[in-house]
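As the next step, I selected for study a record pairing a protein sequence with its backbone structure tokens, which the following lines show:
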Amino acid sequence: MSEIPPQGAYLAKTCPQAVQLDVLHPCEPLPRSPFMAMLGQEGLDFEARVFELLAAAVPDAVVIDSDLSRSAREALTLGAMGRAARLLIGGRLPVDDAAHRAGEPDLLVRSDAFDPSTTDLGYLPVDVKHHGTLEAKKGVDGALTSNLEALFLGPSDPDAELEPQWRWPDLIQLAHYQRMLEACGHASRVGRWAGVVGREELVVWHDLDLPVWHPSEYIEDPAPEPLSTMQAYDLEFAHRLSVVDASLAHLSDPASPLLAEPIAVPECGECGWRAWCFERLEESADLSLLPGMTVAKRRKCQSRGVTTMRELTSLDSATARLIAAGVDLEHLVEKARTSHPSTPVADLMSGRPKQTEELEAEGIATAADVARIDRRTARFGDARLAELPALIDNARAWLGPHPAYRRRGVDRVIVPRADIEIDVDMENVSDGCYLWGTLLNERDASGTVASEFVPFVSWNPDIAVGELEAFLAFWEWLTSLRTEVARRGVSLLAYCYSQGAENGQLRRLAALCGLEEEVEDLLGSEQWVDLLPIVKSQLITGRGMGLKVVAPMAGFSWRGPEVGGQLAMVSYIEATSDPDETVRASAQQWILDYNEDDVRATAALREWLDQRASSLPSIEDAVPDGPAPHPVASP
């Protein structure tokens, strides 16, 4: 690995395929999205604020000028540590050529910040992150935190109500810096402690030797016991280095094999290589495109000879259901092989009444019936893949000619309806929720529906004030409407799509306004309906179930080619902060139009579910064109 250039802390937490493509560079990657650029700027702004607070709180802190060259920053950092400076801000550790590491921790804190009684002059790495770092206590140990303004008084006693958030990317990054400190001889001897400064503006301390992780799914055959952050980092970093090494060898000799391949993972959404990868994934109908198919599950399928979606669709659903139910097929087949064909499965599965019941439900009542078990599917018996039946159905839906299918056992798609229907969708940014958009739908005696978009919005740049204005106006309107409906004796339902975001914001704002009881009354009532589980429980697409995926099946389309909640967050900055009034007005109208389209999409989807979705074919009828099931040998 002598040719590998020094790698930053990002490497150990990056998709191996992205690492490989960074070396091969088969095309130009996609540019950073406006949303990620916004998050990046917010992070830099928050980092600058924390740096300013710490520089004021620790007068002898050493601030390394970020405009200097890398070598100059390394020299200044090494010199400051050699002088035992209490705090280094914005430093760069000396490159560890032997281990191929380079790194720039936000903060390097002398050991006595964690243990004021120590005489050790080593350093602890601390990073600044623009997200929360604490959560409600669930375990035994509370959070150890240090106040930024009293950093060198040491951490407080363990918090009685809060514990640290263990975020994989943050901790893996800190482990990288810990290894670099060890390599240059400036690691603390009070222990491998590292800190994260988040929105709470506290240093939240983590023990990097505490066994809390299992490695990522990219690591094959990991040890079953939990690993410390340091151990997990070492595995991940070494794996990515081998990917880089193989990529460099491939550049020199195209016959040299590569170690990574395109796989769809949650991180793909903002990766610059996503277009390159997904073109190939779609062409090959890769297993990873299926909902619920993780890297580990994909590996289990491949190791059992199922490498494509077409091969997955050829598996036998009945056999897969038996596997998912925990039926010991190996035992069953062996017993059937040595028994008379008329032997009841209850005798073959003596002492296993639940398994017998599952077999009989699939029509396997005697030893002769056991021959109907598909041997290729039975290979998954030891895979611990309870999702196998769903994965097979998803593959059939993905490859099928229809955009969606009815799930097994769904004869008619049902969606609750009312005389008055309200579609609700909120828009928020990281600091608050500024818009509650509603579509009021009322059906008259002739069946004609009158729809009115009613937004409750605040463009106040002070979102802490504006979000309360918008929420209270929305809540007063909705409460009055519910009261009027009750007086008139007609029914009302309010719909959203994926209620987690709306519910979270409603509860948070209710707590600020003293409306907890009233909000919980709505959320716990039948009047508040989430369309997502209604769709998921009755339909299957083989792809995602987001509103942007399913609403087009109802014939709905958004006004703009580029729409999404992330783009709305970016537009909000223009809508509230741009000095040009014309730009502000345009951004505000774009957000309102986008929000209106979202609520009209849920209304269109609901109507389609109620009127036409039942005509979709059942997934039971989506028989693949692949090979027929392979029965086991007759007993």
Summary: The longest strand covers residues 432-443. The chain has three domains: 32-215, 288-402, 420-616.
